[in-house]
Design a protein that fits this description.
Shape: elongated
Number of helices: 2
Strand order of the largest sheet: 1-2-3-4
Largest sheet: 4 strands, antiparallel
Order of helices and strands: EEHEEH
Number of strands: 4
Oligomer: single chain
Strand content: 35-45%
Helix content: under 10%
Length: 123
Amino acid sequence: MVAFLLGIGDRAQPSFHIEDAKGNERFHLYAQDTWKITPKFTLNYGLGWEHETNVLNYDLPKPALVAPIYGSDLSSTEKQYKNFEPAVGFAWSFGKNNSTVIRGGAGIFYDTQLGWWRLGERP
């Protein structure tokens, strides 16, 4: 297998600053509870919060090359502190001796970027 990465820019430029991009801390807090509404119906609910300290190049402005896509605001990407993750689920049992259970749930979740992608983007 052959692979390569092509970039635009010069690694020797002062904007590279590889030391500013090496670390990333990922925080994820989550709280959950269960409420048995009836003997046959249970509700689960929870709320999470997630933050990554350095997953994107927050210290670098966008190059003028991408102005047709981003418009006139080429400032650096802002950190996201409002990544809340609500989730809800249920279990409903029925049938003879509660032998059948229907379960369902939904939530909002955030994925992360690959760390090496950020390093390749910097030059």
